[in-house]
Amino acid sequence: MFTTVFVAGYGNSINGHWQEKWHQERLGSYWVEQGDWAFPNRDDWVESLNAQIQSINGPIVLITHSLGGSTLVEWSKHHKANIIGAFIVAVPDVQSSYFPDEITGYQNLPLEKLPFPSLVLSSSNDPYSSLERARFFAQHWGSQFMNAGNLGHINTASNLGDWPEGKKIFNEFIESLEA
Questions:
Q1: Residue 121: phi, psi to the nearest 5?
Q2: Within its chain, how far is the Cα of 105 from the centroid?
Q3: Mean pLDDT, to the nearest integer, of 78-97?
Q4: Is the pTM of the predicted complex or chain greater than 0.90?
């Protein structure tokens, strides 16, 4: 058995976001709260993630969205824990001209292999990252890669509800970890 930790992105994954719905369904899961959702600072966000992870005993699976995935990658550069897997959805291209100016510290995202299994799930029409860039990140992080189709940024604007297709992919990822 493992504990699920949700790591939301810029602006937080609330108001009908699939990540919020999944968190509400997963008893005993945790949500990483950030001090400033509107002006994310890498060091502050990494510290919030680390505090949450370090408070949990036992194996952890992370479910990230957007900047939450970038935060996880930054965290893994300096910290260790009993992470058994990471489901990384819609990771943004931090070097893109579309990357918000309000976000600081992420411009040189690490490209080292992650110390745990991971799956990068991207959309073919994500305004914050091309499939090529998402595949590039996955390759460097040693992650599996999957194209989820035309889902935009895989957020509330994508009108996914509780995103049953994503749950299916997540469950298959979990089964691969347990095999």
A1: -115, 120
A2: 17
A3: 95
A4: yes
